[in-house]
Design a protein that fits this description.
By secondary structure, the chain is of the alpha/beta class. It has 9 helices and 12 strands. It has a 7-stranded parallel sheet, sandwiched between helices. Strands 8-9-7-10-11 form a 5-stranded mixed sheet, with helices on one face. The protein is elongated, with a radius of gyration of 20 Å. Homotetramer.
Length: 267
């Protein structure tokens, strides 16, 4: 039997971290060897999360955990403020980062890509791990060839820190590859309230909603002569992201360099 892939989860006490820990424990090819949370140290993962994680304990020190547990993969669901340092540490110790936190720049992704290649390891940064969301983005890029006028409304829980979401940015990037840059709306339009027309990327508008009750939702709205087309995806709960996380933990072992977007592992 092949050896299991050893995984450390950073932010393991958070909402996404808890789901990730459970998904790893359920998968026969993965092994949870470490869990990090800045508020916990030396306490049982099983006791805190109510799962059977064996002898694995929480640590509040990322670097110490990477050195002591010698994982193959580090899954990070933290915040933009700490995520970047965690990726640097993982690559430094030859651990493959799988990152669901968003908020990095293209230049940072390129630098991590080069660093991973120099260490001979892979990495995955995924704005969205839900398979349905990836299909939404793929369908949107196809639709933009025929209906180039498009706006995005993305809706998330009110604890999300970045706006627009990484999924919205990735969707706009894919659409921009399928259509020419163009202006939208009336050339003389004006906002009586600043920001009413949303943010703009290459002429496309994006609107961010942050309210309690939401998890992660996005609709891509296309307009044409006498018609509109809406492509919408809804993550009803965080379990929707877990098949993509588990897939990434396995597929990242086959790559060198940083893969940006789970669609590159699927399609």
């Amino acid at each position: 039997m092949a050896e299991k892939i050893r995984v450390v989860v950073i932010g393991a006490k958070g909402r996404m971290g808890r789901e990730t820990v459970q998904a790893i424990l359920k998968d026969e090819e993965l092994e949870l060897v470490g869990a990090v949370d800045r508020t916990l140290d030396g306490v049982s993962v099983s006791d805190v999360l109510g799962v059977d994680a064996g002898s694995v304990q929480f640590s509040n020190d990322v670097e110490k955990t990477l050195v002591e547990t010698k994982p193959d993969v580090m899954v990070d669901f933290t915040t933009p403020a700490v995520m970047k340092g965690n990726i640097d540490k993982a690559i430094q110790f030859g651990v493959r980062p799988v990152v669901g936190t968003t908020g990095m720049t293209p230049e940072e992704i390129a630098a991590w890509d080069q660093a991973c290649k120099e260490r001979g390891i892979g990495g995955v940064i995924a704005p969205n791990f839900a398979i349905g969301a990836l299909l939404m983005m793929r369908f949107a890029a196809e639709a933009a060839r025929f209906l180039p006028h498009v706006e995005i409304i993305e809706m998330h829980h009110d604890q999300k820190l970045d706006a627009p979401s990484g999924t919205a940015i990735k969707t706009l990037e894919l659409i921009s590859q399928a259509r020419e840059q163009m202006g939208q709306g009336h050339p003389n339009e004006h906002e009586s309230i600043a920001g009413a027309r949303g943010g703009e990327i290459e002429g496309m508008r994006v609107h961010s909603v942050r309210l309690p009750g939401y998890v992660a939702h996005q609709q891509v709205i296309f307009g044409g002569l006498g018609q509109t087309l809406t492509i919408r995806h809804d993550s009803i709960n965080r379990e929707s992201f877990m098949p993509g996380v588990v897939l990434s933990c396995k597929e990242v072992m086959k790559y060198e360099g940083m893969v940006y977007g789970l669609e590159n592992l699927l399609f």
